[in-house]
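dumping this here so i dont lose it
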């Protein structure tokens, strides 16, 4: 068995009340664990991202690939 983890840091923009209300009207947040989807219109809320974009979306593809490669060598 192999395990791993990935850490990403998302910094949001300073948002006006109007921007927040506009985002809420999209209803995109309703089925999102973090209340936004960076790959959808939520990217306009984000000022910066440190780390793996795919991790924020939900699947750290690079890490998964590394773990699978390591597993195949065992």
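and the seq i came up w/
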């Amino acid at each position: 068995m192999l395990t791993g983890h990935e850490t990403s840091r998302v910094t949001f923009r300073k948002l006006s009340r109007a921007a927040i209300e506009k985002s809420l009207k999209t209803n995109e947040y309703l089925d999102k664990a973090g209340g936004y989807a960076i790959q959808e219109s939520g990217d306009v809320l984000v000022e910066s991202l440190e780390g793996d974009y795919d991790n924020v979306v939900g699947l750290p593809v690079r890490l998964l690939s590394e773990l699978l490669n390591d597993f195949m060598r065992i």
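The chain has a mean pLDDT of 90.
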